[in-house]
Amino acid sequence: MKRNKFLLAAFAIFGTSALFAQEVKEEEEQTNLNEVVLIGGRNSERTVVNSSVPVDIIDIEKLKTSSPQLSVNDILNYVIPSFNSVRQSASDGTEHIDPVTLRGMGPDQVLVLVNGKRRHTTSLVNYQNTVGNGSVGTDLSAIPISAIDKIEVLRDGAAAQYGSDAIAGVVNIVLKSKPGGDASLTYGQTSRNDGETYNFNGSYGTKLGDKGSIVFSAVISDRKKTNRSKDHGLDIFGDNFAYDFADDPAAARAADDAKIAALGLSRKDFRFQIGDAAIKNQQFFVNAETALTDKLDFYSFGGVSLRQGNGYGFRRLPSDLSGEALQVYPNGFQATLKSNVNDFSNSTGLRYAYDGWNIDLSNTLGLNTFKYNVENSINQSLGFSSPTDFYAGRHQFLQNTVNLDFSKKINQNISLAFGGEYRYEQYKIGAGDEASYTGSGSESFRGFAPTNSINGDRNSFAAYVDGELKFGNFSADVAGRFENYSDFGNTINGKLALRYEYIKGYSIRGAISTGFRAPSLQQKYFSNSYTDFYLDENGNQVLGTKGIIRNESDLSRELGLDQLKQEKSINASLGLTFRPTSKLFITIDGYFIRVNDRIVLTSDIYDPALEQYNITAARIFTNAIDTETKGLDVVISYDTRLGKGKLNASLSGNLNETKIVDYHFPASLTIEREQFFGPDQVNIIESLSPKTKATLALNYSISGFNFMVRNTYFGKVIRDGHPYGSIQEHTGKVVTDASIGYDITKNFNFTIGANNLLDVFPDKQVAENSYYGVFPYAPVQMGMTGAYYFARASFKF
Q1: Cβ atoms of residues 17 and 3 within 8 Å
Q2: What span is annotated as the signal peptide, if there is one (predicted)?
């Protein structure tokens, strides 16, 4: 295997060098830079080149053939440096839905649209101290890749145009709408012979009426688990060894082997499962549009996503058990967390043309339900009467949005749009089986109790106006938005974006805007109890029960915390664009984002009042901090003829830094400030995501062959294990993707390749951060899967 990896790497490097050694033929070619984009403004003539704000267009049709990645999250993670998504491990629901970030902001500060319509978020709250801690994001991977034509990423604040959540930017997913069919089959696995993936995706489109179309799309995938824990056999007597960190690893391992053999057991009885969760997906989408009359069009799109996840919690050693529980599991156990995530969406509307006006009336419904089951576990307080499998409850989020939009190009220089929006949201938590929450609750994942159950809702009204002016080489975009929330009051936001082309092909652009993000219903109403580490009275790190307590609770007021309010932001950007030829395009954009009253989870709070909740420590949502984010995006794209083939070379990078500039310690706060917002939470905001990320991608097509080589640099991150570990810097890493594809016929392509070809991992964790060596690697930067190889057959019909 090592030899094969070396040969593949050598081929990739040699092939790349050979391509550059050939004579470059200058030839004018059209690129997707002139393709019309839907976001950034409501002028239908907007493109990447003439946009006043930075917009990326990702051609999914090309990428899904050559790329090792086959989900929206993973694809964007490797093609847009300011976008980040990392798989998490042993993190409850977060390992089943990957959180995503843009420009170093939170997952809930990125707005997602589908065909220009607001997409609902998930019902999941990320609270396991991973990236995006305390946030609620949108599950991009619930949208089948086979349904997507292209993805537009607006890297600029857009709350004045699209409303709440658009502080960092907007991702707009444009669905396929043309007749035709395609399908692909993919098989892959890691270099450690786990993580097998089977993926089928396909779509079929046909005409609907004289001018319309309907496209059906589906994805069925199965990703097996990976395991990256050390097979070091933890001593069942409690003397835990991480052999890589022991003074004499061989002697330590031999001593444990002797103890295990004396009990008639094997090392597998104590093996941990730490890695990517097993995930199965079944996804179905439809996108339809047809003309009812010469001036009236009907459209409807959406679908369902059904996901079944299988992850693992911390292993319980026999020394962690007592009494009857030890008799049920004499060798200890590692519980399995099984999830069922069901997602439904539909947008239906009418578009009417009248006297130059385009009128669009639509209704968009989204529903996300997340159900939990715990297997191979126990409720120790119930002893022999405890089941070993539990239904642990569920949470659900519903969003329904009604839009009425008017737009018109008044003349060659003036465009105008305005409209209104009504949005209804509902959030529910349902209790699990009584055995899952009573007493000590089900181990590893405690079920939702009746005290956690909630049925909360709200509505909001919004009105906006959006205009564009052009005067020669100068253009200006102006937008304003008023929004009223039934539970948080009013907000008014505005945006001004300017662009000036001082020489043909060269321009300067900039924008300034205000924004907001209302606290999500999940942040307002979520509560539960969960298992995590805490320090006992002797300073020892032990497992115990903690809880998320609602901000509106009596406990929150007793501790002196303020009620939740909306985040407010200021977003400014300044950039240069260069297009000396139709084949070369360069953009450089600097940005500044200030967020006041940012909503976060507190650090662990210890207080005598927690006894009534039967928990050791509590965390509460609060507007604790103000942050400032400064960054720079660079994108270079070049298309040319190279020999008898076509070469596309792209280099893009992001520099980004977020700092906490102020803390909002309530005047009546009764707890220590470090418990309100300590180093562990500061680390997540400021240094747990790469501050530098860059991608160099080369695609070369010739005589039916396509060669792709892509190197992605993930900058260093810092992980603070406080208060249970230490501060550790994880150095930057380069991940190499490569693939070779061949068109066997005009409609049949076969591709082989690899993600992380050179089997790169984050730095190994120091002993005190690794939970006795069980977590040799933290899932930071590129995750901890290692090399992954795939083969794919693609068809068109």
Answers
A1: no
A2: 1-21
Q: The tokens of 151 are what?
A: 């993805």
Check residues 732 and 12 and name the one with the higher pLDDT: 732
Structure tokens at 455: 């049925």
Q: Are 580 and 26 in contact (CB under 8 A)?
A: no
Cα–Cα dist 492/533, whole Å: 43
- For residue 235, what pLDDT band results from cuts at 50, 70 and 90? very low
Kindly provide the residue ranges of all beta strands, DSSP E only, lying in 448-566, ordered along the sequence.
454-471, 474-485, 489-503, 506-517, 528-535, 541-549
Secondary structure of 661-718 as H, E, C letters: EEECCCCCCCCCHHHHCCHHHHHHHHCCCCCEEEEEEEEEEECCEEEEEEEEEECCEE
Say if CB 316 and CB 336 are below 8 A apart.
Answer: no
601/585 Cα distance (integer angstroms): 42
Amino acid at 542: V
Residue 5 has pLDDT above 50, yes or no: no
pLDDT tens for residues 14-24? 333 333 333 33
Distance CA 489, CA 663 (A): 24
Q: How far apart are the first and last CA of the chain?
A: 37
Q: Are 716 and 690 in contact (CB under 8 A)?
A: yes
The CA distances from residue 31 to 168, 298, 383, 578, in Å, are 27, 31, 67, 15
- Beta-carbon contacts of 9 under 8 Å, excluding residues fewer than 6 positions away, are 736, 757, 758
Q: Is the pLDDT of residue 615 over 50?
A: yes
At residue 352, the pLDDT reads 98
Instruction: Tell me the C-alpha distance between 758 and 714, whole Å.
Output: 15
Residue 217, token pair as written in the block = 């799309």
Residue 168 near residue 110 (C-beta atoms within 8 A): yes
Q: What is the pLDDT of residues 570-598, one digit of tens each?
A: 999 999 999 998 899 999 999 999 999 99
Alpha-carbon distance of 790 to 740, in angstroms, equals 11
Q: Write down the domain spans for the chain.
A: 2-230+272-796
DSSP, residue by residue, 335-354: EEEEEEEEEEEEEEEEEEEE
- pLDDT band at residue 778 under the 50/70/90 scheme: confident
Tokens 């662009």 -> residue: 499
d(CA 277, CA 195): 9
766 close to 725: Cβ distance less than 8 angstroms: yes
pLDDT in tens, 75-121: 999 999 999 988 887 777 778 888 889 998 999 999 999 999 999 99
Tokens standing for 430? 């349902």
Question: How are beta strands 617-642 and 541-549 bridged, if at all?
Answer: parallel
User: Are β-strands 117-118 and 83-85 bridged in parallel, bridged antiparallel, or unpaired?
Assistant: unpaired
pLDDT tier, 246 (very low <50, low <70, confident <90, very high otherwise): low
Euclidean distance between CA atoms 153 and 589, whole angstroms: 14
Q: Give the distance, in angstroms, between the CA of residue 607 and the centroid of all CA atoms in the same chain.
A: 34
What is 315-336 written as a DSSP string?
EEPGGG--HHHHHH-TT-EEEE
CATH number (3.40.980.10, 3.40.50.1370, 2.40.170.20, 3.40.630.30) of 2-230+272-796 reads 2.40.170.20
Most confidently modeled range among 79-93, 249-263, 536-550, 634-648: 634-648
pLDDT of residue 320: 78
* CA dist., res. 336 & res. 378, Å (int): 11
Residue reference for tokens 């830094």: 657
Nearest to 755 by CA among 710, 695, 699, 707: 710
Residue whose pair of structure tokens reads 């609750």 in the numeric block: 441
Residues 6+ away with beta carbon under 8 Å from 588: 575, 576, 577, 632, 633, 634
Mean pLDDT of the chain: 88
284 φ, ψ (degrees, to nearest 5): -140, 130
Q: Is 754 exposed, middle or buried (0-12, 13-18, 19+ CB in 10 A)?
A: buried
